[in-house]
Amino acid sequence: MRESKIKRGFFVGRFQPYHLGHHEVIRHVIHEVDELIIGIGSAQDSHTLENPFTAGERVLMIVRALEELGIDKRVYVIPLEDIYRNSLWVSHVCSMVPPFHVVYTNNPLVYRLFKEANFDVKHTRMYNRNEYQGTEIRKKMLEGDEWEKYVPKAVAEVIKEIDGITRIREIAGKDV
Amino acid sequence: MRESKIKRGFFVGRFQPYHLGHHEVIRHVIHEVDELIIGIGSAQDSHTLENPFTAGERVLMIVRALEELGIDKRVYVIPLEDIYRNSLWVSHVCSMVPPFHVVYTNNPLVYRLFKEANFDVKHTRMYNRNEYQGTEIRKKMLEGDEWEKYVPKAVAEVIKEIDGITRIREIAGKDV
Amino acid sequence: MRESKIKRGFFVGRFQPYHLGHHEVIRHVIHEVDELIIGIGSAQDSHTLENPFTAGERVLMIVRALEELGIDKRVYVIPLEDIYRNSLWVSHVCSMVPPFHVVYTNNPLVYRLFKEANFDVKHTRMYNRNEYQGTEIRKKMLEGDEWEKYVPKAVAEVIKEIDGITRIREIAGKDV
Amino acid sequence: MRESKIKRGFFVGRFQPYHLGHHEVIRHVIHEVDELIIGIGSAQDSHTLENPFTAGERVLMIVRALEELGIDKRVYVIPLEDIYRNSLWVSHVCSMVPPFHVVYTNNPLVYRLFKEANFDVKHTRMYNRNEYQGTEIRKKMLEGDEWEKYVPKAVAEVIKEIDGITRIREIAGKDV
Amino acid sequence: MRESKIKRGFFVGRFQPYHLGHHEVIRHVIHEVDELIIGIGSAQDSHTLENPFTAGERVLMIVRALEELGIDKRVYVIPLEDIYRNSLWVSHVCSMVPPFHVVYTNNPLVYRLFKEANFDVKHTRMYNRNEYQGTEIRKKMLEGDEWEKYVPKAVAEVIKEIDGITRIREIAGKDV
Amino acid sequence: MRESKIKRGFFVGRFQPYHLGHHEVIRHVIHEVDELIIGIGSAQDSHTLENPFTAGERVLMIVRALEELGIDKRVYVIPLEDIYRNSLWVSHVCSMVPPFHVVYTNNPLVYRLFKEANFDVKHTRMYNRNEYQGTEIRKKMLEGDEWEKYVPKAVAEVIKEIDGITRIREIAGKDV
């Protein structure tokens, strides 16, 4: 198939961590495209309560979790450093990933920026938005509540292997 | 297999373009590791004679070329923006890609930086170094000489699909 | 008139958007100088609720609005990207605009920085400060309230031509 | 006239200094557009042999020289800091200046970048290219040769007022 | 004594201003090391209520205050600009200061980052934490309350000599 | 002595490495000032043939070498990261170091920039310029020639302790 014929989709998030909400979006949009690009936003951030995991750790979470989905299409997982200028962000994304034609997002700014650049932008369905939410999951990690059930099994494993909960608690100044 | 047991290798280049020299290195080192990370250096550069292709275009070249190798191990293809400080570069790489244990390189600076950081660094074999060389291949592209035979078939296709030769010639101020 | 004899004034704002408060300041200070420089601060910011308009859009607003004032002196309208270091900001401004001798501002930080650099700094009069205020006007734009009467006619036209209200509402995640 | 009906042109240079070659280009292209934007490239550079003058000094040169042309159309003179990434440069320019539809340039990279972004790009005529050339003029300034005849009268005045020749010679380590 | 035998400690703060809490920490840890490095964090910040003093002013405060302690060991006082990426910060520090083996800190993030990099990290004792605290002291400076007793005598002198209180009050928009 | 009465001098270099030429300059200028600031330029650079040593390593060289001079005045050794804009460099230096009144330099750009900022700038004497020169000394280090006699004894020790010669040779791709 020629490059120009390939229908490629773009989905971006910070994935702090990658959770079941993301998982469900991908499970569905994968059927609408030939190939999917997953952009890891704010790739340069880590070791904060808002962004505890490095881009590399997030790559690991996503790649392993995707195997649970049994996808037989090419998926590109690409860290994207922030460019700190909204007017340049679409061009920045386009330079870092293979060409794409459709964008999946529920983020109003992402939506607007790609629309101004004449992309085909689609809202994604929300899956259990109250529970499948980074902020809430990180809070549970910090407070010692159960968090594993909100992320794919592979993600929970990665977080344990890198001792991610200790990192979050130490950064918060909590006794571990 | 637990994360800490996985032997992951790291191989970095600018891949302007990805050529048969890179291809041969990967064909060999893939047998020494469980998983391989391919870092695309100077990811932010494009549209110059030295760095004609965007990171996204290079991702495309590499991912498609790898399929020719029939590899059955996980390979991560990760764009790496320059950090412009040698003393920070190893930490930068480590933050952007999954954890790795061995580095394959023939670049003296890369070799030294990883060695100072106590990594296991190995020289790669050279495959037909005179011909399989980015500088030479870009020169052929510019001059209108035959260049396709120095790159994997998939890479030649990508370059044609993005009309890469025209870009190089126009940037050089040549009539197209 | 020799350069060194020209009395040039400097007035800086973010102009998100340029409103009647700015307009009144300029109407008055223009009489105290031979030429006026209008610096557009945080030029790199756009597409946020705090900074919805690009520097180019703000240039357009200001240049057209100034024509309403019928000024017969040279006015320079210069976008100024942030330098993110207060101790360098005065030098940054001075490198980007023609030489000037007097600064008009009510911003305490701008006042202090120029004073430490031995400039002649003057407070501007406040014109209807409650209504002529960027924050309030952007809020009206967002909420669908009347905002046109707080900006020069030319500015309202520019905002309509670039469909600025839709941008603000979409970024805020509001139905349009 | 509505914004969308205005035919605006964009012409970019480093203008180190603004010389008669630039002057002739503007004298001609001004007839093809309703308004003209003059972008001052590498605005952040100064005090080198390649880029001796600050952006503010170049603004001054250009604005005063333009008056010699007796133009009765709006001309925007806008400093443009480098963004150091070719793939972002067109977006960067577009965010900093009013919307434009046609680009005038003889620079191959500028030509290519705007063409990839689907702009209407036109080559400018060359006026006495051997003599009207920044490199040559700066060399004459440095060597103490006659340089005034290659720039508009207003530009020569500005350079004398800011004592620009002394700066160039001192930076080069020459006795003054 | 050979370099590798020297036990060097690292202590970092923003020192806005250097106060008696810092003073007490240094008075104690100096006995545990051969040499001490004092890193001045966020060196690039100044002229804000949170960071009123420049790095150079803070160098002055610290160097003069240290003389009150009568230390007979080498102390290095080094400004450290922010690197804005937690994953690079330890490498950044290590490149800017002489090699060190032990870190003294009560900051949870600093603690965690150095621990992940396998440094020997020690908590410092807290001295009168309620009073000896930058935030509180800056508040007193702003409000016109007595602040001198919370800082070493030498620091109070430096702040008066640079007229630091006026700066803080002007930045806050207070009448002076 | 009050701050404003202290005559402080500023001397800047890259000190790659600190050599006997620098040493002689300091030996002489120290008599003309009450306190001396030594700025380490391009502090962020290391691990190149032009800039092999980190700022921290250079701090070590300088501080130890100064002890050979038996100076009884305060000397501040301050790393200065590049700001990449000549028009901001003087302000940058001034924000990072204590206030100073006189600058010692033979670098034409440094000379010019401080002169434009109305500093008292003095040329330093040249001591055996042919031999005491960073470029020449680094070349000897690379080629395996004798280099120790061109640097203070303390500097030679530091370079050996950090195994600096091996670094230079490895970066150059030489067998070690």
Question: How would you summarize this macromolecular structure in one to three sentences?
Answer:
6 copies of one chain form a homohexamer. Chain A has 7 helices and 5 strands, in the order E-H-E-H-E-H-E-H-E-H-H-H.
Q: What is the helix tally of chain A?
A: 7
**CATH topology grouping of chain A:** Rossmann fold
Gyration radius of chain A, in Å: 16 Å
Query: What percentage of amino acids of chain A are in beta strands?
Result: 5-15%
Structural summary, described in words:
- The structure is a homohexamer of 176-residue chains.
- The first copy, chain A, has 176 residues and is an alpha/beta fold.
- The first copy, chain A, has one domain: HUPs (Rossmann fold, 3-Layer(aba) Sandwich), CATH 3.40.50.620.
- Helices cover 41% and strands 13% of the residues of chain A.
- Chain A is built from seven helices and five strands, in the order βαβαβαβαβααα.
- Chain A has a five-stranded parallel sheet, with helices on both faces.
- In chain A, helix 1 links the parallel strand 1 (8-13) and strand 2 (35-40).
- In chain A, helix 2 runs antiparallel to helix 6 (153-161).
- Chain A is globular.
- Chains in contact: A-B, A-C, A-D, A-E, B-D, B-E, B-F, C-D, C-E, C-F, D-F, E-F.
- Chain C binds chain E through residues 84-87, 108-109, 111-113, 115-116, and chain E through 44-48, 54, 167, 170-173.
